[in-house]
Amino acid sequence: MFRLISILCCFAAPALADAPLIVLDRTQLPFDVGPGNPANSPSRPGNAPHSAWNSAGNTANSSAAWENRPTNPANEKRLIFTAQGDVLGYYARNAGGVLNLFDINGRRVAYRPARGTQSLFTTQGAWCGTVDGLRDGSFVLAVTPECVRQFGR
After folding, report:
1. Which long-range CB contacts under 8 A does 26-33 form with residues at least 24 apart?
2. Which of 48, 83, 97, 125 has its CA 20 to 30 A from that of 116?
3. What secondary structure does DSSP assign to 37-57, as a single string?
């Protein structure tokens, strides 16, 4: 079911590299992608916000880094948008493979660690959602309502 929703969301995508965002009900998620799975737990060392590659202190995750700046033209092709077409922000990967999500002003909202999970975590380390990869290499972000609100702060 989750995969089907993800595929349908991609048909509405304005560009292949952009990432549609859907709001999820975490109680409806299968165990393997939810926060109850030990691999997706915020307390797992590789998922923690103080882990070297995930850390806000790592300059590779800062909006001051060229790769992460909202003014970087490459980020115009990595937009995060809702089903209504509203742009919430953009995403960028760091050299270690961490997927960082930024709001439209360049504030880091969430991240997906490079290995061991498809889960997203807020910069404070709370479980925020999941990333569903598709066969064409694109992906869909499925996040909690609380995480969506982080984009509007």
Report:
1. 26/127, 26/144, 29/2, 29/130, 30/2, 33/2, 33/118, 33/119, 33/130, 33/132
2. 83
3. SGGG-TTSGGGSTTSTTT-TT
State the pTM of this model.
0.87
Of the candidates 86, 99, 89, 106, which has an alpha carbon nearest to the alpha carbon of residue 131?
99
Q: Are strands 79-81 and 87-93 parallel, antiparallel or unpaired?
A: antiparallel
- CA atoms of 68 and 3, how far apart (whole Å): 29
pLDDT in tens, 73-107: 999 999 999 989 999 999 999 999 999 999 999 99
Number of residues assigned to the chain: 153
Q: Could you tell me which of 45, 67, 58 has the C-alpha nearest to residue 125?
A: 45
List Cα–Cα distances, 57 to 36, 63, 121, in angstroms: 28, 11, 16
**What is the Cα–Cα distance from 129 to 47, expressed in whole angstroms?**
13
Does residue 109 sit in helix, strand or coil?
A: strand
